[in-house]
Design a protein that fits this description.
Layout (H helix, E strand, L loop, with lengths): L6 H4 L21 H13 L6 E4 L4 H15 L7 E5 L8 E5 L4 H24 L4 H27 L2 E5 L4 E7 L2 E2 L2 H5 L3 H58 L4 H21 L4 H13 L3 E5 L9 E3 L5 H5 E3 L2 E3 L2 E3 L5 E3 L1 H4 L4 E5 H6 L3 H11 L1 E2 L7 H5 L9 E2 L3 E6 L1 H10 L3 H4 L2 E4 L3 E3 L2 H17 L7 H15 L4 E3 L2 H15 L9 H8 L4 H11 L10 E2 L2 E9 L4 E14 L4 E3 H4 L5 H17 L8 E7 L12 H13 L3 E2 L2 E3 L2 E2 L5 E2 L4 H15 L5 E6 L10 H8 L3 E6 L2 H8 L7 H23 L1
Parallel strand pairs: 1-16, 1-17, 8-13, 13-16, 23-24, 26-29, 29-30
Antiparallel strand pairs: 2-3, 2-7, 4-5, 5-6, 9-12, 10-11, 14-15, 18-19, 20-25, 21-22, 22-24, 27-28
Helix pairs in contact: 2-3, 4-7, 4-8, 4-9, 5-7, 7-8, 8-9, 17-19, 18-20, 19-20, 21-25, 23-24
């Protein structure tokens, strides 16, 4: 019979000759385009050039991407530390970026400065060896004593005793050199009392003037001491300042900050000075220790830009947080309770997130988007009831970020975000798509074999024989639906290897063999067994050896997602007088999908093209998928439907031993379909179940021959000539292969037969009129 495929055109081949192991883990052909896109994003390093990676997530893939990024950023500068520091406003800390590993040194340096100032200032207050200060203090005391002494003398002359306080003077009238009591004062005469009051008023006015004079003099002297103190502090802290200038010579901003702190502490301590240390101690402590450093990102252990995968991207984990503590029933916070999130930890490097995890956390995508659009991380997002209860809330200033974000998700989320979120396309300008299907060439074969070897080594599995490797390749080619390609699914590969290894543990085999792989990948599910049983019991009716008019064996696939298998379907057609309509019983019963409906309309166009001598074809056709009670969709049965119509109209029988699958256009050209391997094997199994496989076959589109990757049993039957696969390019091929015609020119015979039958229908129509 014409158009029969030879066994060598069908049997799968995977040659391992010359294949060597090189353990080249960095080469991943299915990820070449992904790596190229990630590399581009890393090189551009500008606003919005983040990556949306369309791929299924797995830890192996994450590790491979991470390794690739590490290799591409290894020559970039080390990531900087990030600190929050206090400037003027303790409630509004600011961010400081430092050279890698310098964050903790800054914190230590600030602490040393504060401790040093604390020692120096105590020494200044208590040390009497500071000559200039002591001279001024002695002079102050001398002047005070002289001025106060003159007031005391005058008071004594006026009959008063004087008590000196820091805030002023108290005058007590005396009698015989001793202060009089209230009782004694009361018995005095009015004249004496008036005289005492007049003298007291004069003394008070003089005392007031003296106090003003003392304050002016002491302020002048204190200002001199404060100036001396500033110079003293500056001199004593000089060596420490020189040290930190050397430590942070590459961080000018840090030197500026520490200079600012030193200047502010020096000014503040000088302004506080009031001679007595005990009086000033509390203010001194506040002035020195108000400044603080919180190292929120410590990159001291990172010699390369950080690559962070955030498994749980909640808002807190993404941005960071300001924590609160309950101290004596009051919620308080401070600089050191600010915690960084993944966006800050990945600053200068790369952050990897899963879309599913991102959208599982309320508001996480919103705040990620907000941060990427502004180029800043803000920690004011979580102001809530704790801040309302707290008397010490913080308002940290935003921190600049510059990193590449890789978002791993599927098509549906990408399409949704791209279509309905204007901001998304601004911040994820690079779309990268993982393509698991790779060509079978020498380098990819080496990668495939090496990958098997590495998986076995990693999981402590037995090695594979060459035939087992070929069978694995065959399975992956079948998944790719191309005999010259492989579907590289490392997760699936690992699963098969582990299951196969588990099955041979009790057999004491040294190798995983071909049959061990077949037992895993070709295992029939219960549903498929039940369907075959129904054919065997004649519950599902099908004829695979006779000839019938208007009846043909089409092919379908039952796809459950995790498993799929093929099964033949009896398609029937009956015709009677009408106006050229094709009545699809599936459609009339609301059991057809949109693609199937389109295929019926296309079929109507083809039939009209085939029989073009009639303005109105005097025949209607009834098409039915027998014993199908679920929804039918797709166009892969349109060749079978066309042959059933031709057979019903021409009264030429169809061979039932050959099933057919294929789509047809309006001009009779046959188009490719999906699931060709499942369909062929489905018909093969049914034939084997209810009859024999001898002299049976399947007709497929020629364009599907490249997709043939059949199981070993089918391949063997084809090699033995028991089971055959035929191909077709157009409906002419289908007619010649499927219809039972002895004539040499089969197509002309069919057309003549159709013409004769159509005339009969036309005459019946006229007779009825």
């Amino acid at each position: 019979m014409r158009n029969k495929l030879k066994s060598e055109e069908v049997v799968y081949k995977f040659d391992l000759t010359g294949i060597k192991l090189d353990n080249n883990k960095n080469y991943m052909p299915e990820y070449e385009q992904v790596y190229e896109n990630i590399k581009t994003a890393l090189q551009i390093n500008k606003f919005g050039y983040n990556v949306y990676l369309i791929d299924d997530f797995s830890m192996d893939k994450l590790n491979n991407i991470t390794d690739f990024i590490k290799e591409n950023v290894k020559n970039k500068e080390k990531p900087k530390d990030i600190c929050y520091v206090i400037y003027e406003d303790e409630k509004s800390p600011e961010a400081l970026f430092l050279k890698n590993g310098k964050g903790n040194l800054l914190k230590k340096t600030l602490h040393n400065i504060q401790e040093e100032y604390s020692k120096i200032v105590i020494n200044f207050y208590l040390n009497s060896s500071i000559k200039e200060k002591e001279e001024i203090l002695e002079n102050m005391q001398k002047k005070r004593n002289e001025i106060v002494g003159s007031l005391i003398e005058e008071a004594e002359e006026s009959g008063f005793q004087i008590k000196v306080y820091k805030s002023g003077f108290k005058f007590l009238p005396t009698k015989d050199g001793k202060p009089i009591t209230e009782k004694e004062y009361e018995i005095l005469g009015e004249y004496e009392k008036e005289e005492i009051l007049n003298k007291l008023n004069i003394l008070k006015k003089k005392a007031q003037n003296i106090l003003i004079m003392l304050e002016e003099n002491e302020n002048k002297d204190l200002n001199k001491i404060k100036k001396i103190m500033k110079e003293y502090l500056s001199k004593k802290i000089y060596s420490l300042k020189e040290n930190y200038k050397e430590d942070f010579k590459e961080d000018k901003n840090v030197i500026e900050y520490l200079n600012f702190v030193c200047n502010k502490i020096g000014e503040s301590l000088a302004n506080i000075y009031s001679i007595n240390y005990d009086d000033d101690e509390e203010l001194i402590s506040k002035s020195i220790y108000k400044y603080d450093v919180n190292v929120i990102v410590d990159n001291s252990k990172n010699s390369k830009p950080p690559i962070i995968f955030e498994e749980d991207p909640s808002v807190n984990n993404l941005l960071g947080s300001i924590e609160y503590e309950n101290r004596n029933g009051i919620y308080v916070t401070d600089l050191n309770l600010i915690k960084s999130g993944a966006l800050l930890k990945a600053n200068g490097g790369c952050l990897i997130l899963r879309v599913n995890s991102l959208f599982s956390n309320a508001n996480a995508y919103y705040y990620l988007k907000k941060s990427l659009l502004s180029g800043k991380v803000r920690l004011d997002y979580n102001r809530g009831y704790l801040e309302l209860l707290s008397l010490s809330g913080l308002n940290p200033k935003p921190i600049d970020i510059n990193e590449t974000v890789i978002l791993v998700g599927d098509y549906s989320v990408y399409d949704l975000l791209y279509s309905y979120d204007e901001d998304f396309k601004k911040i994820f300008k690079i779309k990268s798509e993982y393509n698991p299907i790779i060509d079978i060439n020498k380098s990819n074969k080496e990668f495939f074999v090496d990958n098997i070897y590495m998986n076995c080594k990693k999981n402590n599995l037995k090695p594979l024989t060459d035939d087992a490797i070929k069978e694995l390749a065959k399975y992956l080619s079948r998944k790719a639906e191309y005999k010259n390609k492989l579907y590289m699914d490392n997760y699936e590969l690992n699963k098969i290897l582990i299951l196969a290894n588990s099955n041979i543990e009790e057999k004491n085999q040294d190798y995983i063999e071909k049959t061990d792989i077949i037992n895993i990948v070709c295992k029939e599910e219960i549903l498929e067994k039940e369907v075959l049983e129904k054919y065997k019991e004649n519950t599902l009716l099908i004829d695979v050896k006779d000839k019938s008019i208007g009846q043909i064996n089409g092919l379908s696939v039952i796809d459950m997602g995790y498993y799929r298998f093929g099964r033949p379907i009896k398609i029937t057609c009956s015709c009677y007088n009408g106006t050229g309509n094709i009545i699809d019983i599936q459609k009339e019963s609301n059991l057809s999908g949109n693609i199937h409906n389109k295929a019926i309309n296309t079929l109507r166009g083809y039939i009209n093209t085939l029989v073009n001598n009639y303005e109105v074809l005097p025949v209607d056709f009834h098409l039915n998928f027998e014993q199908i009670y679920g929804k039918v969709d797709g166009d892969s049965a349109s060749v079978a439907e066309a042959i059933a119509i031709i057979s019903a109209l021409s009264k030429i029988p169809i061979k039932q031993n050959i099933a057919v699958t294929g789509s047809v256009n309006q001009f009779g050209k046959v188009q490719p379909i999906g699931g060709v391997n499942d369909k062929i094997e489905g018909f093969f199994k049914v034939c084997k179940t209810i009859d024999t496989i001898e002299n049976k076959g399947v007709l497929i589109p020629k364009s599907n021959t490249k997709n043939l990757v059949l199981n070993e049993e089918v391949e063997k039957s084809i090699q033995e000539g028991k089971f055959n696969i035929y191909y077709m390019e157009n409906m002419k091929d289908a007619v010649e292969i499927l219809l039972d015609i002895e004539e040499r020119n089969k197509v002309d015979f069919v057309l003549d037969s159709i013409e004769k039958e159509v005339k009969k229908y036309s005459s019946k129509k006229r007779y009825r009129r």
